[in-house]
Specification:
Length: 461
C-alpha cells in the first residue's frame, strides 16, 4: 500500500517533468513565468489546390515569353515584341477574368514616367497593370491588400533592349500567380461564398529590373487614391523547384524593421501567412530578401508597410538575368521549360488563401503599448476604430527566443488589459483583432515603454 503511494507519487512527478519537456524541451521555470499559451486558431482554408488553374498560368507565362524581351526600355507599342506585347497579354487575360465577374473586377492600366540610373538618368514611360476587387465593407474598403509580380525582364545587360530576355521564372511566374489570385478570389466574391471586407489589388508592375520603379510608383498611387495598405505580397521567382522531392515549401522573406524585438509589420504579415497556409507550405526567412538582393516588396517595407516576398526554395542563377546562350555545354536563360507547374500552383493557392483570410479580417489594432517594468503585472493597451464586425482582440505573446506567437488571452474591447502575474521581462507581446467571421488581422507588436536607461535618469532607477 505504502509502496504503491510512493510509486504513484514518483509517476506523477515524472509525468509533470515529461509534460514540461514536451512543451518546450526546457527545464521548469518559476511558476509565474511559465509559458501558458494556446496555439492560435485560424479559419478553415477554403481554396482547394485543385481549383488552381495551372494550365492557364503556364499559358500566360508562355505568351509573355513569346514577346521576346520585356525589358522596361524595350517597345511599349509593338504588339509582337517588347514589354508592351506582354502588357497586352496580361490585360487580355484579366479582361477575360473580369468578364466572368460581370465587371466586378476592374482592370486598370496605370501609365507614368520614372527616372533612374538604369534609365540613363532620363525620364522613360512605364506602365503597371492592376485588377481591383473592391471591398464590400465601408469600414474596410479603403484598406487594400496587394499581390504583385513584375512583368518586365532583363538579359545579361540590363540596358540592352534588343537581346532576348525570356524571363519565365523572373518574373512571368509571379505575374501568373497574381493573375490566378485575381481569378480565384473574384470568383469567390461573385459566387457570394466569401465577403471580402477589404479591397484586393492584383498587380503586374514594370521597371523592377531598372530599380523597383513600378512598385515604388504603386506605393504612391495607393496613397493618392486614399488606400491604407493592409499587406503586400510580392511574388518574384516562384516557378521553379528542380530539387528531388519537389514540390518543396516556398520561401517567405520578411524584414526586421526597427523595433527592438524585430517585430516589424512585415514580420507580422509573414507570421500571419504562415499560420494561414501552414508550416508545411511556408518556409519563413527572417531577412528582408535573399542575401544582398532586393525586390518589389522593398519600397512598401521602407514605407513602414507590411510587405513580404515569396521566392522558390533554391534558385538556379544560370536561369536568371542571362541572355540565352550555351557556353561550355551549359545552357543559360530563363526558359519556361525549367518551371515546375505543381510548385507554381501551390504558390498561387498559398497567396490566394492568405489574401482571402486577410481581406475578411478587421483592421489591425494600433498604438499597442506595454507597461509594467519593475512591477509584477504586465499592462497592455491598444487602440482600434469602431467595427461592428469585430468580435474582440487576441493578446499574443512568445518567449523572446521563439519565432511564432501564441495566444495568451482574449479581450472584448480596446483599452488597457492587466495581465496578472505576467512578467514584462521574459516575453514579447502583440495584439490582433478577431472578426465575427473568424478571420484575424495581422498582429501589432507592442512598442516598448520608453524609460531612461539606468544611470541616466535623475531619479534612481
Ligand atoms: Zn525579379
Amino acid at each position: 500500500m505504502r509502496v504503491g503511494v510512493v510509486l504513484l507519487a514518483c509517476f506523477l512527478v515524472a509525468g509533470a517533468a515529461n509534460a514540461q519537456k514536451k512543451m518546450g524541451g526546457d527545464p521548469v521555470e518559476p511558476a509565474r513565468s511559465e509559458p501558458r499559451a494556446k496555439r492560435p486558431v485560424r479559419m478553415t482554408r477554403a481554396i482547394a489546390r485543385q481549383s488552381v488553374d495551372t494550365k492557364s498560368m503556364v499559358a500566360l507565362i508562355d505568351q509573355m515569353v513569346a514577346c521576346g524581351t520585356r525589358l522596361t526600355l524595350s517597345s511599349w507599342t509593338d504588339p509582337k515584341r517588347g514589354i508592351g506585347c506582354a502588357r497586352d497579354k496580361i490585360v487580355a487575360r484579366l479582361e477575360e477574368i473580369s468578364k466572368v465577374t460581370g465587371g466586378k473586377l476592374q482592370v486598370v492600366v496605370d501609365k507614368f514616367e520614372a527616372t533612374a540610373e538604369r534609365t540613363s538618368g532620363k525620364a522613360v514611360p512605364l506602365e503597371n497593370v492592376y485588377a481591383i476587387l473592391p471591398g464590400m465593407d465601408p469600414v474596410m474598403a479603403k484598406t487594400a491588400f496587394v499581390v504583385s509580380g513584375h512583368f518586365d525582364s532583363r538579359p545579361s545587360d540590363v540596358m540592352d533592349p534588343n537581346a532576348d530576355a525570356p524571363g519565365a521564372d523572373d518574373d512571368a511566374s509571379g505575374v501568373a500567380v497574381s493573375v490566378e489570385c485575381a481569378r480565384l478570389l473574384s470568383k469567390l466574391a461573385v459566387e457570394g461564398k466569401t465577403g471580402f471586407r477589404a479591397t484586393i489589388l492584383f498587380a503586374a508592375v514594370s521597371g523592377e529590373e531598372q530599380g523597383l520603379l513600378g512598385s515604388g510608383h504603386l506605393v504612391e498611387w495607393l496613397k493618392e487614391k486614399g488606400y491604407t495598405v493592409g499587406g503586400m505580397l510580392d511574388d518574384d521567382i516562384v516557378g521553379d523547384d528542380p530539387s528531388p522531392g519537389a514540390p518543396h515549401r516556398v520561401r517567405l522573406f520578411s524584414g526586421n524593421g526597427e523595433i527592438e524585438d524585430a517585430d516589424s509589420p512585415s514580420r507580422e504579415l509573414a507570421r500571419a501567412i504562415e499560420e494561414i497556409d501552414g508550416r508545411d507550405a511556408i518556409r519563413m526567412v527572417f531577412r528582408v530578401d535573399r542575401y544582398g538582393r532586393g525586390g518589389d516588396h522593398y519600397p512598401f517595407y521602407k514605407a513602414g508597410l507590411p510587405a513580404v516576398r515569396f521566392t522558390e526554395p533554391l534558385e538556379d542563377y544560370n536561369h536568371q538575368h542571362q541572355t540565352p546562350r550555351t557556353e561550355n555545354g551549359v545552357e543559360y536563360g530563363d526558359f519556361a521549360k525549367y518551371l515546375n507547374a505543381a510548385f507554381l500552383g501551390n504558390v498561387a493557392r498559398d497567396n490566394a488563401e492568405a489574401l482571402r483570410q486577410l481581406a475578411m479580417a478587421p483592421a489591425a489594432p494600433t498604438e499597442v503599448r506595454l507597461k509594467g517594468a519593475v512591477t509584477p503585472d504586465a499592462k497592455l493597451s491598444w487602440k482600434a476604430e469602431d467595427d461592428p464586425e469585430r468580435s474582440g482582440f487576441e493578446i499574443l505573446w512568445r518567449e523572446t527566443t521563439e519565432a511564432r506567437w501564441s495566444v495568451l488571452e482574449f479581450a472584448q474591447n480596446a483599452g488597457e488589459t492587466v495581465l496578472k502575474g505576467v512578467s514584462t521581462d521574459n516575453h514579447f507581446f502583440a495584439v490582433r483583432a478577431t472578426g465575427k467571421n473568424g478571420a484575424r488581422s495581422i498582429a501589432t507588436a507592442s512598442q516598448p515603454e520608453v524609460r531612461p536607461a539606468p544611470g541616466t535618469a535623475k531619479k534612481k532607477d
